[in-house]
Amino acid sequence: MLLDVSKINSVIFDMDGVLLHSSDCHEEAWCDALSLVGITQFSYASIAGMRTDEAAQKILDEQGISITETEKERLISQKRKKALELLMLRGRVADESKGLMLQLSKRYRLALASSASASTVQFFLQKSGYGEIFSEVLDGTSVRHAKPDSEIYDLALERLNIAPQQAIIVEDAVNGIEAAHRAGVRVIAVAGTEKREVLLEAGAEVIVDKLSQIVSILL
């Protein structure tokens, strides 16, 4: 499917699962942290794209487990700590992202809008060297409500001073697609975290299997 990009002047990227190969690190970190409260089975795909604190509450609610605020903070802290350790060991910047970012930056303003912690986003920016490319960078601490709430994308549009019709969002998770749609922005989805049919059902306009395919869509 072809997109009409004539009105688009900005591209907003999610980070985890799009520009940073990190899903396995986050899933393992969740397994480690959730073991603290006796949870051994959960669906990572259902929380992909969510901020850690909100994802933790979602899992606890679904499992019917009630814990104290102190215990929940310990769980959240453990997940974030373990995820950052794993990312530093084996997190990889998407191979095709550098060429894509350089090409897109010649025509569009680029922004990063991730539900990840500030420390994880800074790790990515340092590892990738993309700090100079993004006009705006938002992380999980930038908003009160994380994806699937639209707040982070609403804020990105506000910071870029553009209307929803002037942007396109690149996502990999259902929660992110839902957030984008609530902000009124169309989505290009990268398959991997979720199957193509799931991304289509969530409402992605276009699905790509690799980042390099975005060039032919937007340029």
Can you put this structure into words, describing what you see?
The structure is a single chain. By secondary structure, this protein is of the alpha/beta class. It is 45% helix and 14% strand. The strands form 2 sheets. A 6-stranded parallel beta sheet has the order 5-4-1-6-7-8, with helices on both faces. The protein has a two-stranded antiparallel ribbon with strand order 2-3. Helix 1 packs antiparallel against helix 3 (69-90) and helix 2 (52-63) crosses helix 3 (69-90).
Keywords:
two-stranded antiparallel sheet, six-stranded parallel sheet, 219 residues, single chain, alpha/beta, 45% helix, globular
Going by helix content, strand content and strand pairing, the class is: alpha/beta
| Helix percentage range | 40-55%
H-E order: EEHHHEHEHEHEHEHEH
Question: Major sheet: order of its strands?
Answer: 5-4-1-6-7-8
- N- to C-terminal distance: 15 Å
Radius of gyration: 17 Å
